[in-house]
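R.M. (postdoc): so does anyone remember the format we settled on? I'll just put the structure tokens first.
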């Protein structure tokens, strides 16, 4: 077992491997997953604006390839919600076929352990993804055009919104908490909530470390590298996407403390899990990124190679 000597910050450059992982003990090799059975019962708690559409596409592509059943929302195309299309704690009645037992559930919902256990077997793999909170908020703000919705005329609508957030009660400051089933959590309860989530979800992916998260998921599911290949297109573009201002960041952190504490907790958890995988994780990651380079070439330039995979299995989905 390795000592965790890497201390991840709240945000790090996407795709950059920490020094501690790159230089870890070369003698450590994680157990092989070559002979383990592929897991095919999966609940994916799809978070808004956290690269979750790409993850859903990867899982959906695998399900289609293996002819697995995916639960469909009854009342709204992308959300397991009630008749008024409000995201409420999941109930099997929110599914198009409430008495069915699908292999996967991949859309937005509010986590409800009891109800999900009525639908899925005990060995189901639970996974979700979160994103650096300010980046997620800006993406959400742009996608739902909150400046137009609230008639904000400022040149910096995000800053203006945060300065006057008490005037906009329709926007939640704890969206992550609500999708996990917690409303207005108090700071004194954060640690217990995080431990609870950690005990129920085998993996909480981090959008800023998307490839690393995918490799970890692939290993936990006993899948192949080609099962998690993806291409990212139609990334969200908006003027303030890369806007950073310490005072504005501080306003958002003060407005949404749960999200930041949650992100810090599971960012550290992700890297602890990665280090536990040993040297072979780095090998998988390197090979995976080499495969991605082939995937992202124009189709006419891709050579057929046995060690890559069938291009028809690649997914092309939004990556916000």
């Amino acid at each position: 077992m390795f000592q965790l000597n890497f201390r991840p910050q709240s945000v790090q450059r996407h795709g950059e491997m920490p020094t501690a992982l790159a230089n870890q003990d070369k003698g450590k090799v994680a157990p092989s997953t070559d002979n383990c059975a592929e897991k095919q019962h999966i609940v994916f708690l799809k978070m808004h604006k956290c690269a979750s559409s790409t993850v859903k596409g990867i899982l959906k592509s695998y399900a289609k390839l293996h002819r697995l059943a995916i639960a469909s929302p009854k009342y709204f195309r992308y959300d397991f919600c009630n008749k008024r299309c409000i995201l409420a704690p999941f109930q099997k009645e929110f599914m198009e076929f409430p008495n069915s037992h699908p292999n996967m559930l991949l859309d937005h919902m509010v986590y409800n352990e009891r109800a999900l256990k009525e639908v899925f077997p005990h060995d189901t793999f639970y996974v979700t993804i979160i994103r650096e909170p300010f980046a997620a908020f800006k993406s959400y703000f742009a996608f739902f055009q909150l400046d137009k919705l609230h008639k904000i005329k400022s040149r910096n609508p995000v800053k203006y919104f945060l300065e006057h957030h008490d005037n906009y009660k329709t926007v939640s400051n704890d969206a992550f908490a609500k999708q996990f089933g917690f409303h207005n959590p108090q700071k004194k309860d954060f640690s217990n909530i995080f431990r609870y989530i950690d005990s129920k979800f085998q993996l909480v992916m981090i959008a800023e470390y998307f490839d690393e998260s995918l490799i970890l998921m692939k290993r936990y599911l006993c899948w192949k590298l080609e099962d998690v290949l993806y291409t990212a297109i139609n990334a969200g573009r908006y003027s303030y996407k890369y806007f950073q201002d310490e005072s504005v960041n501080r306003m958002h952190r003060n407005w949404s403390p749960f999200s930041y504490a949650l992100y810090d907790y599971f960012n550290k958890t992700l890297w602890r899990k990665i280090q536990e995988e040993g040297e072979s994780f780095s090998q998988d990651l390197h090979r995976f990124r080499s495969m991605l380079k082939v995937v992202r070439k124009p189709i006419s330039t891709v050579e057929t190679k046995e060690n890559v995979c069938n291009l028809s299995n690649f997914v092309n989905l939004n990556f916000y």
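R.M.: ...and that's the designed sequence above, right after the tokens. Also worth knowing: The beta strands are 42-45, 104-105, 125-130, 203-206, 231-233, 316-318. The mean pLDDT is 81.
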